[in-house]
Amino acid sequence: MTRAPRWMRAFPLVGVGAGMSAALVLGGRLPSAPVDPPPAALIGAPAVRVAEPLDRSAVTAVAFTGGGGLVVGTSTGRVEFRAAGVAATPQAVLQVAHSPVMALAASGDGATVAAATAGGVQLLDTARPALGRFVEFPADGVYGVTTALALDRHARLLAVGTDDVSVFEVSSGRRVALLSQPSPAKGGERHVYTSMAFSADGGALHTGDIFGDDAWRTGDWRLRSTMWCVCFHPARYSPAARWASVGTSDAHVLVRNPATGTTTRDLTIDVAPRSYTGDTAISDGGLLFAGSSDGRVLAWRPDRDLPAGQVKVTTGEIGLLRLSPDARWLVAGRAGDVVPGTGLDPYTLWLLPVRP
Q: Which InterPro entries is this protein grouped with (predicted)?
């Protein structure tokens, strides 16, 4: 798929008018065309490498807490808590299982982190990291690898994604919904859900895979809307699911309104041949970030189509990008070879400050 890159459309030809002719006759200087000042950089400081887990295991899952603290899950079943902006030694380490941590998610109020392992989900208190309630997967469920988690604002509902989505009531551990969407737009097949978020009012659960986004009404759990896009990474949601961002195989970044299913922005990261967009992240205020296939992280403000800064982080694809709920920190990850026997990607991480 080929289209004119946005930077070409941003510079129309300017015709010669009376003002230019008068300037030439009088010997004056040609008036310069108005040029917008470059947007202030959202990112720009060198990325800081996040220290590997204390036991030198592989990083298999990443999430941010409400206060910007970084939570890392490992291939050895550990969860490490780091303070906001700290890439070095963790403040606390919990052994939640003896199998890999497959996915992590934080509640909207930032008080709880969910960590998925082979047998279920362990809920952790972020203020004083300690093991909390355990939600066990039903025996009839299919849980090879949990690819996504979501908690609502106060950790009352828990969504677990594999090739379907199970929704649990946390207080009782009861599964209240089993969701799957073999949409005709997706070839009539079920696909692995790899991103999820509850809306701020708790009225919808948004679930994403590499073919787009499905929105489900909480309560009756009926499908509300579907957005479709062929992309290498699923849609990512702002903390309250006000916006969704997704990168495409032809190096574009789309911003969508999950409530309406409409695309509100179409940006490009590159014009180089064979470039594509890696993972993306977006804030509730519309600050947008995207990784590239050549190891860069780019940033946009909600009112400008030109990037507000970019940082070369590594070589290879930025396959993981997470933004803290307060939009002050960004973590970027490059995937390595799959952890044997798990199907999980191990990540090397870098931390970048955001300057809104």
A: Quinoprotein_ADH-like_sf (IPR011047), WD40/YVTN_repeat-like_dom_sf (IPR015943)
Give residues with Cβ within 8 angstroms of 283, minimum separation 6: 238, 239, 243, 323, 327
**Of 331, 252, 323, whose CA–CA distance to 287 is shortest?**
323
In this predicted model, what pLDDT tens digit does every residue of 2-45 receive, in sequence order? 333 332 333 333 333 333 333 333 344 444 444 455 567 899 77
Alpha helices in 3-156 (DSSP H): 6-9, 18-25
Could you give the 3-state DSSP secondary structure of residue 288? strand
pLDDT: which is higher, 137 or 28: 137
Judge contact between 208 and 195, C-beta under 8 A. Answer: yes
More confident: 238 or 355:
238
How does DSSP assign 168-227, residue by residue?
EETTTTEEEEEE----GGGTT------EEEE-TTSSEEEEEETTEEEEEETTT--EEEEE
Task: Please state the pTM of the whole predicted model.
Answer: 0.85
Instruction: Centre a 10 Å sphere on the Cβ of residue 45 and count the other Cβ atoms it contains.
Output: 13
Mean pLDDT, to the nearest integer, of 82-104? 92
Cα gap 239→222, rounded to integer Å: 22
CATH 2.130.10.10 holds for 43-353? yes
The string of DSSP letters for 54-74 reads: TT---EEEEEE-TTS-EEEEE
Question: In angstroms, rounded to a whole number, what is the distance separating the alpha carbons of residues 81 and 308?
Answer: 30
For Cα atoms 322, 203, 143, give the angle at the middle one, nearest 5 degrees: 60
Mean pLDDT value across residues 331-347: 89
62 neighbors 70 (Cβ within 8 angstroms): yes
Integer Cα distance of 137 and 166 in angstroms: 9
Query: What does the block give as tokens for 184?
Result: 């005709």
Q: What is the pLDDT of residues 274-283, one digit of tens each?
A: 889 999 999 9
- As a whole number of Å, the end-to-end CA separation of the chain is 34
How many whole angstroms separate alpha carbon 299 and alpha carbon 294?
15
Residue range 145-162, pLDDT digits in tens: 888 999 999 999 999 998
Q: What is the mean pLDDT of the chain?
A: 83
